[in-house]
Design goal:
Structural class: mainly alpha
Helix content: over 70%
Number of helices: 8
Number of strands: 0
Oligomer: single chain
Radius of gyration: 17 Å
Number of domains: 2
Distance between the termini: 19 Å
Length: 181
Amino acid sequence: MNEKNSIIKSLIEIVPLILFFIANAKYGIIFATKIFVLTTLVSLVVSYFYLKKISTPLLITSFLVLIFGGLTIFLKDPVFIKLKPTIVYLLFSILLFLGLVLKKNILKIYLSTLIKLNDTGWNILTRRWGIFFILMAILNEVIWRNFSTDFWVSFKLFGFLPITIIFTLLQQNIIKKYSIK
């Protein structure tokens, strides 16, 4: 993936979240969810036209945004959109661990064009990401159940995103150690 496509891919994933944050601050969670659903649909279209594909994680996340966002909008109950990250994180974790059990390392299948690791490295990285997603699901549950909606929305952008970036950077030692030249 070239640098331009990498930037487009990053924007496709982050812009709906930023607009969700801004809309929530100005108009509340229900309107923000409408914006989130709409911009997620736009992201799918942009991904398809600019990158000529829609990544599996984007597809899964978008599907769940549409379902849980739709429920939030239809029932006027923000609980559904707050549950979405928990379900996404748990689903990703289950897929990663299931892949290990079935000897089909999902992370390796998905990232092998970007990273070259031996099987031990892929398995360690996959277990770490699986555990990370479980912990993120738990953190989402703690945040939305114990803090205000505004705090939860802010944490989605200023908490979960930096935590994920930091976790990704912390995996560099494993990648270097098990890298195939």
